[in-house]
Amino acid sequence: KAVIVVDAVSGFGNGRVIPAGPLRETVRCGLARADGVVVLGPVQAPLPPAVAAAGLPVWRAWLAPSDAAPDLAGRRVVAFAGIGRPQKFFDLVEALGADVVDRVAFADHHPYGPRDLARLAQAAQAAGARLVTTEKDAVRLPAGHGLEIVPLPVAVDWQDPASADHLITALLAGREGAR
Question: pTM of the entire structure?
Answer without folding.
Answer: 0.83
